[in-house]
Amino acid sequence: MEPLEGSRGVLYVIACAAPAAADLHHLVPLAQTSGWQVHAVVTPTGERFVDIPELERLTGDLVRSTYRMPGEPKGLPPADAVIVAPATFNTINKWANGIADTFAVGLLCEVMGFGVPILAVPLLKDALARHLAFGRSLAALQEMGVSVLFDPEAPPESRMPSWERIMQELHTVVGGRQTQG
């Protein structure tokens, strides 16, 4: 499916296993209203948090969580931007270290290599946010060009920004960049 004329392009929304993923179906219409063609990817554990049939209905596409088998056609068009929200401790650390043991992390590692703008929105417990590996991983991802929307000083119940705020930040990250379409 090619991006529509005048659209912003293809947006991958990648969700991990955190409570905010249950509301991912609220992000898709916001992105579509802003001109994005949305494709959803979830981590294997993240599948338990999202409403896959609803996401597939909203996007008109399969929600992906596993690598395709050899000989199967590629299912995703090239991305123009990526949102990783909620991004968990596990995914942030594996991604920063290139441990592509899930489709979601492998896809993130690959799109970084293409220079696609990526916005990561971590959501994790205070104790995990204080872990040395997490801080190092965030710094590594930022050094590789990933934009991060995370306030470690925010109270845990307020740490996940609204989907509207996430879209606003994505548009700031993407800026005037031309899409592939």
Q: Could you give a short description of this structure?
A:
The chain has seven helices and five strands. By secondary structure, it is α/β, with parallel strands linked by helices. The protein has one domain: Rossmann fold.
What would your notes on this structure say?
Residues 13-104 form the Flavoprotein domain. This is Flavoprotein. The chain has helices at residues 24-33, 52-59, 89-96, 103-113, 126-129, 132-143, 163-174, and strands spanning 9-15, 36-42, 81-87, 118-122, 147-148. By secondary structure, it is of the alpha/beta class. Strands 2-1-3-4-5 form a 5-stranded parallel beta sheet, sandwiched between helices. Helix 1 links the parallel strand 1 and strand 2 (36-42).
